[in-house]
Amino acid sequence: VCLCEGLGNMTLFDKAQALKFPKLVEINFDHCSDLEELPGSICSLTSLERLSVTNCHLIQKLPDDLGRLRSLRLLRLSTCPSLSMLPPSICRLQQLKFLDISLCMSLKDLPMEFDQLPKLKMLDMNECSGLKMLPKALAKLRSLKRVICDEHTEQQWLAIKASAMPNLTVDVVEERFNLDWLDD
Predict the structure, then answer these.
(1) Domain boundaries, the chain
(2) How far is residue 91 CA from its own chain's centroid?
(3) At 146, is the secondary structure helix, strand, or coil?
(4) Cross-referenced InterPro entries, in alphabetical order (predicted)?
(5) Which terminus in the chain has less CB density within 10 A, N or C?
C-alpha cells in the first residue's frame, strides 16, 4: 500500500484477508495521512520480512501482538510523530536486523527488554526528541553495529560504546540551521 489516503483505521484488512496472503514478505504504509493505527490482523502475516510505516502522522500505536511477526527483519517506523510507544512484544522479533524509529518525536521510551533482539544490527533513532533515557539493556545488544542518533542521545550512546560495545559506530545527525543557500 503506497501513498494511501482515506483509509482511516483500515477495518478493511481483517484476519481473513490477511490469511489470503500467507507468503507476503513486504508491506508499505507510506504517506497514509488518515491512518491512526495498524490493524491487529497484520500480525497474522508470519512470513512478513519487511514492514514500513512512514509519514503516517496520525498513527499513535502499533498492534500489541507485533512480536508475532517472527520473520520480520526490517521495521521502519519513520516520521510517525504521534507514535507514543512501541509495544513490548517488539522485543520478540528474533530476526529483526534493522529498526528505524527516526522522527518519532512522541516516542517516550523504548521497551526495557530491548536486549532480546539478538540480530539487531542497525538502529536509526534520529530526531526522537521525546526519548530522554535509554534502557540499560541496550548495552547487551551484541549484534548492534550502528546507531544513528541526534545530539540528545549521543552522550548516552557514547557511554554505552565505551563501557560495553567498542565496535559500535555512533553516527550523530546534527541539526543544521545554515542559511548559506540564500546567497545563491
Answers:
(1) 15-175
(2) 12
(3) strand
(4) Leu-rich_rpt (IPR001611), LRR_dom_sf (IPR032675)
(5) C
Q: Report the 10 Å Cβ neighbour count for 28.
A: 16
Look-up of cell digits 540564500: 182
50 within 8 A of 26, measured Cβ to Cβ: yes
Q: Which helix (H) or strand (E) holds 87?
A: none
pLDDT in tens, 50-107: 999 999 999 999 999 999 999 999 999 999 999 999 999 999 999 999 999 999 999 9
Nearest to residue 117, comparing CAs of 133, 106, 105, 101? Answer: 101
Query: Residues for the chain: how many in total?
Result: 184
45 half-sphere exposure, CB direction, 13 A CA radius:
23
| φ/ψ (deg, to 5) at 61 | -150, 165
Q: Could you give the strand order of the β-sheet that contains 98-100, starting from the edge strand earlier in sequence?
A: 26-30, 50-54, 74-76, 98-100, 122-124, 146-149, 169-172
Contact 45, 13 (CB under 8 A): no
Rounded to whole angstroms, what are the CA distances from 22 to 50, 64, 69?
14, 20, 12
CATH superfamily of 15-175: Ribonuclease Inhibitor (3.80.10.10)
Instruction: Determine how many CB atoms are found less than 10 A away from the CB of residue 62.
Output: 23
Alpha carbon of 97 to those of 17, 89, 124, 147: distances in Å? Answer: 27, 16, 11, 12
Distance of CA 132 to the CA centre of its chain: 17
State the number of CA atoms in the 13 A half-sphere of 132 facing the CB: 1
